[in-house]
Write a structure and sequence with these properties.
Elements lengths: L10 H11 L6 H13 L2 H17 L1 E2 L6 E2 L16 E5 L2 H10 L5 E4 L17 H10 L4 E4 L5 H13 L6 E4 L15 H9 L2 E2 L1
Helix pairs in contact: 1-2, 4-7
Bound molecules: zinc ion.
């Protein structure tokens, strides 16, 4: 059932329902429930939500160094001089940075690819933040690259691709240990498993 099938809904309400339906995991029924919930919210709360969406769209940029989402570039991790500048951990997306930061076992820097190589979905290496990665590696004193892509076919293929691209470089290239569930996303891995995988990382 789509929102167009609710003849009684006012146009502004239909519009809100349609926008909410575009969110991941939100079907037509949930969109309607959310819309009616938002209508009943106190004005301040509803405008605060709308403002937060506007602010995030206006302020969030990619960190020029690690490509993570940030309000200010370079981000707080890249500009933290206490972090180990020799090690860069490559992840698929910003949520993986949060997952790894929660483990507190990694004190180096990150590089966010914003995806994985996926020929079926038409995503090739040129659509990932790989150029930016190679530029970082050539310019700075990075000694170790930890590849922490997800344990999926695409994640593995992307890790292999990066390793091949960097073959012959002096860089030590490691990979998270195989304690991670196959097919599993870093984001949903519990902190203990993730920190063990990090500590047990192996050279590729
Ligand atoms: Zn950064």
């Amino acid at each position: 059932m789509s929102s167009e099938q609710i003849p009684s809904a006012a146009p502004s309400l239909s519009r809100l329902i349609q926008e909410l339906q575009k969110l991941p995991g939100i079907g037509p029924k949930s969109a309607q429930r959310l819309a009616y919930y938002l209508i009943r919210l106190p004005d301040d709360d509803a405008y605060a939500l709308a403002d937060a969406i506007t602010a995030v769209k206006q302020q969030i940029v990619l960190c020029a160094e690690c490509q993570n989402l940030t309000d200010d570039s370079p981000c707080s991790i890249c500009s933290d001089s206490r972090r180990d500048q020799d090690v860069v951990c490559v992840v698929e997306d910003p949520l993986d940075v949060l997952a790894l930061e929660r483990t507190r076992c990694f004190r180096g820097l990150y590089h966010v690819l914003h995806g994985v190589i996926s020929p079926l979905n038409g995503i090739g290496p040129e659509q990932l933040k790989l150029k930016e990665l190679y530029a970082r590696l050539s310019g700075k004193q990075v000694q170790e690259l930890v590849i922490a892509t997800n344990a999926t076919l695409e994640g593995e293929a992307t890790a292999m691709y990066i390793r091949r691209q960097l073959a012959g470089s002096e860089l030590k290239i490691t990979h998270l240990a195989r304690g991670l569930p196959v097919g599993g996303a870093l984001e949903y891995t519990d902190e203990l498993t993730l920190s063990r995988a990090f500590q047990g990382r192996q050279e590729l």
